[in-house]
Design a protein that fits this description.
The protein is α+β, with helices and mostly antiparallel strands. The chain has one domain: Immunoglobulin-like. The protein has three helices and eight strands; from the N terminus they run H-E-E-H-E-E-E-E-H-E-E. The strands form two sheets. The protein has a six-stranded antiparallel beta sheet with strand order 3-4-5-8-6-7. Strands 1-2 form a two-stranded antiparallel sheet. Helix 1 runs parallel beside helix 2. The longest helix is centred in the N-terminal third of the chain and has 16 residues. The protein starts with 10 loop residues before the first helix and ends with a strand.
């Protein structure tokens, strides 16, 4: 971003970060800088018990888990969706469109959905504590992101 952008604190910034990472994977780019830790391009605000993170924090944290893994860009997704899968089964999908889009997984996925309607995403540990949904079909609101893992049968 070139200047102050109010979307930096919304799920849209997380979706944008995932879409940049997908484009980088397609182009075989090794590294990208998606945000700063703090400040006007930051992923968080406050300190100590007053620490709160923005949705882009979770996207970057999830993308970090893709490092040093084989990554497959998800093809054939519905309009507005971009995504990728890591060799360990982690899946990231972002809805970059202005309307709800449906993500249909080819296998069962355990996932949590990040959107602007969940104040719990201000918690830095949200990825570990978020309610998960298991299924093949996920309705992703505009600007929302799916953080998932291919379900392993028990």
């Amino acid at each position: 971003m070139a200047g102050d952008d109010p979307r930096q604190t919304t799920a849209f910034a997380a979706a944008y970060a995932i879409s940049v990472a997908v484009a980088a994977a397609i182009a075989n780019v090794e590294a990208v800088a998606l945000a700063a830790p703090v400040g006007r391009f930051g992923v968080m605000r406050g300190v100590g018990p007053n620490l709160a993170v923005f949705p882009i924090f979770h996207a970057i944290r999830a993308l970090n888990r893709f490092a040093d893994q084989s990554v497959t860009v998800l093809r054939g997704l519905n309009r507005g969706l971009v995504g990728m899968q890591a060799s360990d089964g982690a899946v990231l999908v972002a809805n970059c469109s202005p309307e709800t889009a449906i993500f249909r997984a080819t296998t069962v996925v355990d996932a949590c959905i990040l959107n602007d309607n969940d104040p719990a995403t201000a918690n830095p540990d949200w990825l570990e504590t978020a309610r998960t949904v298991t299924g093949h079909r996920f309705d992703l609101a505009a600007g929302s992101c799916l953080f998932g893992k291919i379900a392993v049968p028990t």
